[in-house]
């Protein structure tokens, strides 16, 4: 059974940082790309970032480029999202995703 469990969300002031984690099990983690997606309040899903297997190549949505860093630890089956210089508009539930599988999400709230 594929399982994804996000953690690390919370309340942070604008300009602050958070590091999200997604611990996985039930599939060959090192062989697949991993994605972060978010859902702002009252809005649809928004793609955030992807990290590929093997090369570790990364891509980011334009608004997150330079502020967010995705990484992975294949030995731990875990993907991370380091978020710096957070803005009010980063408030959302953040999900990790592989194929058709999703975690339960972790809430990030940016507020002064």
Quick structural overview:
This protein is an all-beta fold and 112 residues long. The chain is built from no helices and eleven strands.
Features:
single chain, 11 strands, 51% strand, globular, seven-stranded mixed β-sheet, four-stranded antiparallel β-sheet, mainly beta, 112 residues
The dominant shape is: globular
* Average pLDDT, all residues: 97
Q: What is the number of strand segments?
A: 11
Q: Name the poorly predicted regions.
A: none
Strand content: over 45%
Structural class: mainly beta
Report how far apart the termini are: 40 Å
Report the order of strands and helices.
EEEEEEEEEEE
Number of helical segments? Answer: 0
Helical residue percent? under 10%
Describe it for me?
With about 110 residues, this protein is mostly beta strands. The protein has no helices and eleven strands. Strands 2, 4, 5, 6, 9, 10 and 11 form a seven-stranded mixed beta sheet that branches. The radius of gyration is 13 Å and the shape is globular.
């Amino acid at each position: 059974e594929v399982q994804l469990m996000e953690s690390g969300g919370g309340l942070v002031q604008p300009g602050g940082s958070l590091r999200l984690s997604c611990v996985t099990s039930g599939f060959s983690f090192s062989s697949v790309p991993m994605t972060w997606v978010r859902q702002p309040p009252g809005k649809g899903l928004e793609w955030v970032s992807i990290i590929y297997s093997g090369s570790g190549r990364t891509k980011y949505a334009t608004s997150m480029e330079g502020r967010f860093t995705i990484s992975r630890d294949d030995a731990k089956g875990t993907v991370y999202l380091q978020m710096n210089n957070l803005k009010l508009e980063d408030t959302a539930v953040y999900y990790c995703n592989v194929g058709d599988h999703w975690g339960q999400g972790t809430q990030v709230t940016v507020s002064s």
